[in-house]
Amino acid sequence: MTAPVLGSQALAHEWIKFRSVRSTVWTTVAAAVLPVLGAVFVATTGSLQSDDTVLGGSLTLSVVAQMLAAVVGALVVTGEYSSGTIRTTFAAVPGRTTVLVAKAALVAGVMYVLALASCTAAYLVGDALLPDGRYAQGEPLPALFGIAASFAVAAVLGLAVGTLVRHSAGAVTTVIGLLLLPSLFGPLFGDAERWIAGLSPTAALEKLTQTSDAAADTVGSLGPWPSLLLVAACTTALALGALALLRRRDA
Description:
mainly alpha; 12 helices
């Protein structure tokens, strides 16, 4: 009789696989580096808008980095389906709930830590390079913790989509659409716009960075923290749906 695999063991297995796959490693590195590069670019080119904040300008490329975090979440599961190693994973860890929870914990944890470090570094670089007193500073705390959490949510969203779609290209396309479409179509829903446009991790991120681009007609009129909580709740619901389907179908 096979002994049950503990969550800590499953997490260790997922970490080994995560750092062994080049696509996930390099996409993760790109997500971590982009915010800092964006801060340097904005500061050296003087392209920051006069009504923007140092925090918002420094994190100009954080939206792209967040998309990469979502892509990482998708690749963590679709890569195994593409290679066929998902069967080995389920043979080693028969509890599919344990597998998906371990994957979610891994991508959320990695992205939270990296995003917190990267976005904090980007803000500090931007603050050092931008002219003193020309722009409003913004409020980096506690916003940076929320920004890192939005990356973690995006990664779990990618994981849920990847579990549902099981194909890398399809999952990446779908999750990027989920990040962008609420802001594009939100204004079409009248009074519900504040909810629809705020459904994306990208909308919550833009509000948390306090960028001047975070207008109510594009990212919804909910505040940054309520928007993040709404996005986290929707992502959790999608992840639970993906788990239910994963437990029912064949590998």
